[in-house]
Amino acid sequence: MTSEYTVAGIRIAISPVLDRLREGAAERERERQYAFEEVKALAAERITLTGIAEADGGAGGTVRDVADLVIAIARADSNVAQALRSSFLTANQVASRTDLPHRDVILRRLLDGHLFAGTANERSGGASGSVHTVLHRDGEDWIVDGEKYYSTGGLYADWFTGSAKSEDGTVYGFTVPVDRAGVERLDDFDAVGQRLTASGTTRLNAVRVGADEVVARDNSRLDIPWLGAFAQLYLSAIEAGIAAAALDDASWFAREKARPIKHSSADKSTEDPYVRETVGQIASRAHAARSVVLLAAEAIEATRGLTGAEARAAGVEASVTVAQTGVIAIESALKAAELVFDVAGGSITNRSLGFDRHWRNARTVANHNPRQWKAAVVGAYRISGEEPPTTGLF
Question: Greater confidence, 264 or 208?
Answer without folding.
Answer: 208
